[in-house]
Design a protein that fits this description.
elongated; 7 helices; 280 residues; single chain; four-stranded parallel beta sheet; alpha/beta; seven-stranded mixed beta sheet
Amino acid sequence: MPLDADAIRRGCRGEVTAATQLCGAELGRFKAVAAEDGPLTVACTQQTALFSQVAAENNRANSIQFANIRETAGWSGDADRAGPKMAALLAAAAEVAPPAPMVQLESSGVILIYGRDEAAIEAGDLLREHLDVTVLIAPPAAIAPPRRADYPIAKGRITSVKGHLGAFELVVDDFAEAAPSSRRALTFGSSRNNARSTCDIVLDLSGGPALVPADLRDGYLRADPGSPAAILQAVLKARDLVGTFEKPRYITFDAGLCAHSRSKRTGCTRSYGGIWVMTV
């Protein structure tokens, strides 16, 4: 791996020392620096356990930061020009990340099951003793009426979903409640658009596109309506989504705001203490 130690030194404020066998023949050099207990970054993640053990044996109090500049920069077609990137990786490793902000989500177990056929009814039957169930069948909703009326059934097409676990807000078009006198086929009353509803959990068995981007919304579960195994797995997950949960607060990432050499803007150059760079 080619290594431009001078380029790394120019990008890092701390003292930079290069080594080729820091975890082997040159381990004594590492012991001496680690014993000083100053800020220290090692550009090798493969031997993290060894370096941490050696530092502890030498009564080092401060933690050591580790960075991988080999797989992330050195092993590439541009390795001979990767010095600035390596310096950036080392500077980033030296920065102590603040703890992720957390948010509390509360769910009382009110679930909306959105489906296209009897699979949604079957999921409702599995959850009726555990959650507060409502089933919404997408039009034309041509299904047989359930044997027992243990939970509300309606037809409608979800057009909008906002919120998260414990605080979903939905907009439904062509909404109509099921008629209690249905016999051979489930019938519905008069329909209306722009009906609004709230719930804690959404179980999507419609088989269509995801109602929220990338299926990453807490409390939104999705399964193939043609797969009983997938439905059962989603049902079991939904059953456990009752109570108070702590989740990391999500952020919006805009790559266009990152400092980059092509924009002639300097990114993070803060780096303190010693940095050891291993070459192989």
